[in-house]
Write a structure and sequence with these properties.
With 359 residues, the protein is α/β, with parallel strands linked by helices. The chain has a single domain, classed as Ribokinase (UDP-N-acetylmuramoyl-L-alanine:D-glutamate ligase), CATH 3.40.1190.20. It contains 13 helices and 16 strands. It has helices at 10-13, 38-43, 61-68, 80-92, 109-120, 167-175, 190-202, 214-219, 221-227, 238-247, 255-263, 312-324, 330-344; strands at residues 22-25, 29-35, 50-53, 74-78, 98-101, 103-104, 124-125, 128-129, 137-143, 146-152, 178-181, 206-210, 233-237, 275-280, 283-289, 292-296. The strands form three sheets. The chain has a nine-stranded mixed sheet. It has a five-stranded mixed sheet with strand order 3-10-9-2-4.
Length: 359
């Protein structure tokens, strides 16, 4: 497929990837993965191949699973924005190219593990601390080829805009040239997202976000639309795009038309056309910009080689961002996103080899 041109803002800014060039804010979760069994799922009223938010009956489960299945416990940083930044960091080749904001309880064991794991992966994790609630966790209980996910947002749900008022933190915002914040923090602190997005627009930088889930398009439509004029690059999958179109009465289910309509929505900096990127699983990726649509193929993969599709969307965004901050073309950004997603779906969780082989 033909490339439609350079990635947004690259020509004007001519930014070379450097320490702190990409900043994100999100809901940090420590993924706790174990090889479980049907009895454990039944104990906590969980189902295989399901994903839920924790209720009161699940609160004791996290310690229970690490003790019951201590021989198989694995810990990993998680949460949509952090996953994308981890992938971008992995592919960037630049020490601490990424900075991440999010709230944890730095005094509990899971907070300490989360910080340690993020730092091991070279992400500059500048967390906000809340000692009143535990660090957010996501239980990943593997039974055979099935995975049951149970997320407890906890401290991640307590992030406040005051974190940006800390001089050291705001300097990191000012240092960055690119920003990525998934849609989920719209449920926690939309004011922080908007403040970062407005700064990006005022300084001619690049702000990226994600539709993230149909419920964001439905129930958090107002804060999403307040943010939209400052969005330079918008990611989403086919289900999210179709939900967005229904909520805004686009009158079409054609995903290419949906992408064009979203791209044409009012923008604060009209001189920089919005780019809308819609992934469609194994179908081509749709990219809309300036009234034009380009499609890019994904890498074919045999079903038996797919281990876990959770995190594929986050990985795609991370791969795209890794090339965007290097000033690469749209085509190469997409190609790297496809590569990253292909790697991750062949792993358990949002994990990756020690060294990428993209180039």
């Amino acid at each position: 497929m033909a490339d439609t041109g350079d990635a947004p803002s690259v020509k004007k800014q001519k930014i070379v990837a450097s320490e702190g060039c990409l900043l994100g804010y999100g809901n940090p979760l420590l993924d706790i993965s174990v090889q479980g069994n049907a009895d454990f799922l039944k104990k906590y009223d969980l189902k295989a191949d399901n994903s839920i938010l924790a209720e009161d009956k699940h609160k004791g489960m996290y310690d229970d699973m690490t003790e019951t299945f201590e021989d198989s416990v694995e810990y990993g940083p998680g949460g949509a924005t952090l996953n994308s930044l981890r992938i971008a960091q992995w592919l960037s080749g630049v020490p601490k190219a990424t900075t991440f904001f999010g709230c944890i309880n730095e005094g509990d064991k899971y907070g300490k593990i989360l910080c340690s794991k993020a730092e091991e992966e070279n992400v500059n994790f500048k967390h906000q601390n809340n000692s009143e609630v535990p660090t957010g966790t996501c239980a990943v209980i593997v039974t055979g080829t099935s995975r049951s996910l149970c997320a407890n947002l906890a401290a991640a749900n307590c992030f406040t805009e005051s974190h940006l008022d800390v001089e050291e933190n705001w300097k990191l915002v000012e240092k960055a040239q690119y920003y990525y914040i998934a849609g989920f923090p719209l449920t926690v602190c939309p004011a922080a997202m908007l403040r970062i997005a407005k700064h990006s627009g005022e300084k001619g930088k690049t702000f990226c976000t994600n539709l993230s889930a149909p419920f964001i398009c439905q129930f958090f439509k107002d804060p999403l639309m307040e943010l939209m004029p400052f969005v330079d690059i918008l990611f989403g999958n086919e289900t999210e795009a179709e939900t967005f179109a229904k909520e805004h009465n686009f009158g079409t289910e054609d995903r290419k038309e949906i992408a064009k309509k979203i791209a044409a929505m009012p923008k604060d900096n009209a001189s920089k056309p919005r780019v809308v990127i819609i992934t469609q699983a194994e179908d081509p990726i749709i990219v809309a910009k300036g009234g034009e649509v380009t499609e890019y193929p994904v890498i074919p993969i045999k079903p038996e080689n797919i281990v876990d599709t959770n995190g594929a969307g986050d990985a795609f965004v991370g791969g795209f961002l890794a090339q965007l901050v290097k000033g690469e073309s749209e085509a190469k950004c997409i190609k790297c996103g496809v590569y990253a997603a292909n790697v991750v779906i062949q792993q358990s969780g949002c994990t990756f080899p020690a060294q990428p082989d993209f180039e």
